[in-house]
């Protein structure tokens, strides 16, 4: 009798999380839940503030790179390459907006696909790794 109760308890403990997942995965309430991120249009003032703070960030990074070259932490060639990359990044954001991206390797969050406004080529998408 004791073994039977132990086996029943183990089966219940194993099947409870599976049943809970199955109930929640196909719940109609799940489809009504909104995502925490929604795209909003910026006002002109917000856009100007964002551009200004982004330019300050780029200037600070350039200053840091130049200081690292002066201190010998980077070679002249490495510093030039880093500055060129910063310029490319600034041009990209000036052209495509200053919003954050998906993260490394172009990963997308749940619900973002080709039909959403959030989908598009990021800085790492289409990069030829070979």
Automatic annotation (TrEMBL):
InterPro entries, alphabetized: DUF2680
Protein name according to UniProt: DUF2680 domain-containing protein
């Amino acid at each position: 009798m004791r073994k039977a109760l132990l086996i029943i308890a183990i089966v219940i403990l194993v099947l409870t999380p599976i049943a809970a997942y199955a109930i929640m995965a196909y719940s109609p309430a799940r489809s009504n839940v909104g995502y925490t991120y929604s795209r909003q249009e910026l006002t002109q003032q917000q856009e100007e503030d964002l551009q200004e703070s982004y330019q300050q960030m780029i200037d600070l990074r350039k200053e840091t790179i130049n200081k690292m070259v002066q201190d010998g932490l980077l070679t002249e060639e490495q510093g030039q390459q880093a500055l060129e990359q910063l310029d490319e990044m600034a041009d990209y954001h000036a052209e495509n907006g200053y919003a954050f991206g998906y993260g490394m390797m172009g990963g997308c969050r749940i619900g973002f696909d080709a039909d959403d406004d959030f989908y598009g080529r990021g800085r790492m998408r289409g990069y030829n790794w070979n």
